[in-house]
Amino acid sequence: MWFSSPTAIASGLLLVAFALTLVAGLDMTWLLFTTPELKGKKDLARLRGTVTRQKWVTLAVVLLLIGAGVTVLVGLFGSWSATAELPLLAAAGTPLAVVGAWVQYVERRIRNLPASKPGIRAKQDRIIQGWEDEPVPEW
Predict the structure, then answer these.
(1) For the residues 70-81, what does the mean pLDDT come to?
(2) What is residue 23's predicted lDDT score, i.e. its pLDDT?
(3) Domain extent at residue 67
């Protein structure tokens, strides 16, 4: 079965978004594995680094999804793609949705990561609040 170029490009963009999301989730899981409790500045620096990487991955995934959507629309309206190819895009996007749900679970666990001291908890709260206020980096 042969698929049009826009469908193949959009599917590829969705698979790249899947890979980035998976890597971000593994990065956050590694933080949870190596840091069961925030004890000092080193742990806070690791948390800040993980949050920063997550922000950049979020930006990249949003741009990839926009690119995939534009590619599909151009393909459909330009008659380079057929509507019969849309199930392929749904199949390419399904793993991304599953991994996205898992990443949301890991994010909730990171937000509830215990801290050993009230001062560290306050700094953790500021890092998490910054993450929630600006889920993508300022550029």
Answers:
(1) 87
(2) 97
(3) 5-133
